[in-house]
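Regression report. Comparing outputs from two consecutive submissions.

Submission 1:
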Amino acid sequence: MCEWLRIQGRGRFAGRTQAGLDMAWIWMFPAAGAVLLWAVSLGRILSPSAPYSLPPSSRLPLPLRGDRRTRNVLLVLAHPDDESMFFTPTILFLKSKGHSIHIVCMSLGNADGLGNIRKEELYKACATLKIPAEQVEVLDHQKLQDGFQEKWDHRLLAELTMEQIRLWDIDTIVTFDSYGVSGHPNHRDVHHGISKLLHENQQGNIEAWELVSLNIFRKYSGPVDIWLSSLISSSSKQPMCCLVNCSPSRTFEAMAAHRSQWVWFRRLFVRFSSYTYMNMLRKI
């Protein structure tokens, strides 16, 4: 009897072990496939030696106007670190084509009382991206304070942006779309402020592009999203393009300059975010 029980116990143990091995093999194949897809996608991104646009025939690089050799581009942000977390592929691409990048940041990012520190970090990040400090403006308006509960006045945003446009002879704007990538209300208000500016200056000679917000799966797919982004950009009826960052390490360098914000979850975000590797821009 005891011998029979021992044999039965060994049989059950062997069965569980075999089932565990079978489950391990089942999970191993998709994991290996995901790693291979990540590697292939990253290889496609890194293969060129300079930032590039998909499709190649897109409206970017921006056509020159008149006898000017470059365009003056204004990147409109809500907080310090937006340029590094979200817009690095756009910045690097436009810089590689010789266009002049100007930045206006609508707040100090003072929600945690670190506004002055974050302002200096923005200048350092821009230095890593080869944007001169004199072409970076950080505002601290009492009606435009950082915070999820803060409602920013769209007309005021439009007026402050127009001041920068006149100061730097800006002809192209790049900013957030209506969702603002993360859904942050300050990001969304910046978009609505730019939309108001464009609506009230329809006769002006200003072109504006918005950074397309992605769903959570695409947002955290890293370089893998290049396949879908390039397909959508190529087939879209709207003017749209995918700008590819062939030097993702530049994003890490820029974001690391924001030392007060360079905490573990943002390190993970920069590593896995598709915005590190590419930007989809759509004309407003």
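Submission 2:
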Amino acid sequence: MQLQNIEDFEKEQAEKDASRDKEAPAKSLPKQKKQRVIDVNAIAAEAKALEEIGRINWIGKLNEYRAIKPLKDGLTFDSVEASQNPVRFKTIVTIKESDQTFGEDVSFSVKKESKHYAAKKAIDWLIMNKFMPSDGTVKFPKPLLPHVPISKENKPPTFASQIPDLCARLGFDCPKYEINKSAPHVESLYDGYAHFNGDPRIEGRVGECKNVYGKHKCKETIAEEVLTFLKNIEKHRSEMYQAEDKKRKRGFDETTHGTVPTQATEGMKREKPAKPTAADFFDKSTE
């Protein structure tokens, strides 16, 4: 049996140990958890800001203002993480009306609350600089104009209101309006017409219309046609009366011009002295 030198043995064991260390994976040490850092000042500032925000929807109010007064790139919301452990958020609002930014001075544990806070700060600036009214509405009310009551005299007459007087002048009874729904399942569309209760001088329907939106509008549409129809009758009658009047005057003038010269001639004949005869001269000479 061959005996090994002790030094050689120790050297050989050292080499084997080194070889095993290279082959074996290094054991990782367990990671230490980062300790949560509580920022007392940030929490206190958040509590105060939440009281200031209240239950008002500041995000919606600011968006409504921007919708009423639109500007290109007029409103932006940028939310960022203010810290990692615990996570806190800040929202920075920019508006076109100001070079300032709003909301970066307070961090919040909830991102939406940071947006409400930034929106409120922007609205406070808009109110202070007269871009928004102080009562919280998003736009200033229009100036009130003096109220001028509309009298019945100034109110334009409807077509239907003009028909009774015209019918009275023409000797007609007022028409009757027949208005019905265009279809049973349709609530706002109407068909209609007017008739003169069987007056033989006016046959059939007048002003018939279909699918008119609104019952009142339907009646006015019919009445407009009836009014035009009656005015045409009135115009036709007027023209007939004028023609008859002219004819009557022309006949009177012809009769007058024919008799006056005749009567004048006869009068002249009666008044003209007779020519003297020889006998007249003879009688005067003998006397």
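Expected: both submissions complete independently.
Actual: both completed, but the second showed a warning that disappeared on reload.
Relevant detail on submission 2: Confidence is low (pLDDT under 50) at residues 275-287.
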